[in-house]
Predict the structure.
Amino acid sequence: MKSSVSLIVGLSIFSALTLAGNAAARERSYKTIRTETSIEASRDSEDSDLSGDRIGVLFGTNLSSAHHAYDSIEGKSKLSLPEHGKFSAAFGASYETSIYINHVFLQPEVHYLRRELVLRNFDVPSRVSEHASVSMHYLQFPLLVKGKLYASDFEFSAFTGPFLGYVVSSRTDTVRINFNNRSEDSQMTAGKNALHKLDYGIVAGLGTGYRFTKTITGVLNARLNYGMRSLLKPTQLDYRSSDIAFHAGVQFTI
């Protein structure tokens, strides 16, 4: 009788310990699941913050220059001499949105630039030099595809895409120097008569940013704008624009 009672008590204690162990194991499992869920939710929230749409403003400067695409005069009778420009102010706005590929974004922009160029040519047979000083107020509309990498609150980007440009207003001073008789004359012409109003080309650049808060990110970038249409209407002077630009700005997550 005593042995039967002892056996029942032992089994009861064993069952109680087993149930307690199972309950503790389930609790640990629940805690693990809750922790993993919380971590995953935090990551999802962070990814959502990083990939959210952004609007931004940019301020900076651009160095305008021009490249001579080709010499259309037969017999190499016209030499393309070095051209140069100078730094001018620029500002713009952007809208960045994800395109359902991790870390890849589409970013349309609009920029206002002021371009200052000096274009020079020397006609060999006639020994006449032409200098054209061009000043433009210019709107540019890039459409960029941007790839990003993240490191803590820092982000690094590379971008490229086409742009369309429009000359709002311009002024051209043309100076002709005849080296045969050492004479010089100058002619001031309206830009609308000398320049194409529309321009197009390719943009490429690199950028970096720092996320100050969940909604505010400071950005820096450098880019090259390479024009693919002649600036001037005369076909024998096929100058095409190329700008190096540096921008600083801020983006707001919306």
User: Anything to note?
Assistant: Residues 64 and 243 are 5 Å apart (CA to CA).
